[in-house]
Specification:
The chain is α+β, with helices and mostly antiparallel strands. It has two domains: about 120 residues, P-loop containing nucleotide triphosphate hydrolases (Rossmann fold), CATH 3.40.50; about 100 residues, no CATH class. A four-stranded antiparallel beta sheet has the order 3-4-6-5. Strands 1-2 form a two-stranded parallel ribbon. Helix 2 packs across helix 3. The longest helix has 17 residues. The model has no long low-confidence stretch (mean pLDDT about 85).
Amino acid sequence: YVPQAAFDAIYPYKRIWQFYLDILREIGISINKENEDQIKQHLIECFKSLGLDPSLVNRYSFELSGGMRQRAVIALIASLRASLPLLDEPTSALDVVTQKRVLEFIANIFREGYVKSVIVSSHDVATLRQIVHRMLVMYAGKIMETAKVEDIISEPLHPYTQLLIKSLEAFEGFKSHKEYKPKVIYRELANIYTMLTITGCRFHPRCPYAMDICRKEEPSTIKVDRDRTVACWMYMKR
């Protein structure tokens, strides 16, 4: 797991390679004087293969810039060859140039074979479009729609996804194949705890297409295509 705040991810009073040893100890790997140098060399080689300056392993986290710190944390996860890393907002609070470098770095850990799959949590659809193949759209903790990224952008199914993509058209240049003109319902957004107690679909208080059944029963997730699911009563056969 790579947290959103990379500064908090690495213990500031230890060099990066020393912190790496602590990670290995936490997952049950025995560290001793005989294998310590070998492990450090492994980390150096990992940094090299990913295009990072190998001398970074001897630095403290506070000596690195935000983008470099983020890449260093991702490199630590890559060196462990984690089966399914979770990156939480990997480009948050970074400038545009640094965001691009971090995204290229994430792509690089795939090219170098360190990971086969990764989960990226983000509210930035434009960022996700550059690095992921499939997208899960969530609202109030519920998965509303899943599909390939380009399918969601070009033809969103769930009313929430439609509004989400519509809101990005002016800023990100997204354009759906279909012309959606949903009527946006402006209501004060309830807190997450209130949303979880809503009867029926969690999005129905703000949905322009809400029906009676939406207010009474929560829709199950159905498969509408080979690679696509949606949780919406509009697509249910009743």
